[in-house]
Amino acid sequence: MKLLERKELNFTPIFLIVNAILLTLLLFIEVVNFARIATISKTKASTLVELHDGESIRVLPIGSEERSPQAITRFVGQTMTGLLSWNALPKSSDDYNPDPTKQLKLDAGVSTSKAKITTSVWASGFALSEDFRAPFLEETSNLTPPDVFNGSTQSILKVSLISQPTRIKDGQWKVDMVAEIVVFQGSNLVGKPIAFNKTVFVRAIDTAALPRFASDVQETASRVRKAGLEIYKIIRTQVDSVKNTVDQSLMGVKSAIDNTRTELRAAVEDVKGQAIEQSVKAMLNILGKDNPDGSKSFKSTNFDFERLGDNVIVRAKNGEAVLTDGVLSPNVSEKQLQALDKVQSVVDMHHQIQQDSQQESQFRNMHR
Fold first, then answer.
1. Which of 2, 57, 186, 293 has its CA 20 to 30 A from that of 266?
2. 3-state SS of 197-228?
3. Domain residues of the chain, as ranges?
4. CB 159 within 8 A of CB 226
5. What gap in Å lies between CA 84 and CA 181, rounded to an integer?
């Protein structure tokens, strides 16, 4: 009997067949994936977002250091208005129903190292960079009229133009602003406009989410900074017209903080100096003595007032100029400023006496 030879099985053909089947399956999966990716790439990005209250808004995808021009100009306008509108009167709301028999509760303000600022200015200050916020608020407190906190003095910022943002580098822009600070003192409801033209430097920031149990300060800071922007510098701008801003100038080679503080102090002192000048002109029209050279003068216990044409100068009793053509002397003391702030009260009192006298005269004529 012939023995059959035992043959070994060859798995190579089987392996090649299985491998070919798997590769075909993988190729099919890749083709399906590419088809789906192509479909997704042609699909428009979602632009409709539903808020927690059910309201739907349109959105656009942007980078972390990108901001739309509309967002930047809106942020600058709101922030500068909040910083330069000084008002201690309470704000009305839907549930605001004050008792007419009780006195309104005025804003007590927020204390700084030397003086006070209004609560709204303090809140708006969180929109400033941290190295700029502290000196800005300190200078603002030094130059805020004390009468703001008794409700007799107010100011608003009336913005005429905010230019389109100019990109400095990624995440940083500058904006030119043409505006006027309108100061209301006493019974003067017309107000005194003072030019305020500035270049504002803005940069993008990241905003952190509020913790579950946030304090009032954290909520205020988060609300002011929710735009993802902050102001880190403000300088003067030379303006030819309401629609055109030209020629920016920086003074000296001081550090950024010193330069910013100088610019801020000059801007606020311009407001105060021109407001005092208008009060002095009104007082000289009432109490001034006519001189042979056509000027008017008046002497009080602390100052000598003089006006020639549109030029007004106020001197202390030692002969040193305190105010010249609406510009306060850098050597003026806080005591002298407080005394000059009372000039408007004298004018208001005189106008009230005249008004009472006229009413009394009319009353007498009616009963003759």
1. 186
2. EEEEEEEECCCCCCCCCCCHHHHHHHHHCCCC
3. 63-91+104-249, 279-365
4. no
5. 8
The whole-number average pLDDT for the span 174-187 is 87
* Reported pTM: 0.52
**Pair type for strands 116-117 and 110-111:** antiparallel
Number of CB atoms found within 10 A of residue 72's CB = 21
What CATH superfamily is the domain 63-91+104-249?
Answer: VirB8 protein (3.10.450.230)
pLDDT in tens, 28-87: 999 999 888 888 777 666 667 777 777 777 777 777 788 889 999 999 999 999 988 888
pLDDT band at 175 (very low <50, low <70, confident <90, very high): very high
CA distance to 108, 180, 247, per residue, from 85 (Å): 16, 11, 27
Question: How does 173-208 read in b/e, with b if 16+ C-beta sit within 10 Å?
Answer: bbbbbbbbbbbbbbebeebbebebbbbbbbbbbeee
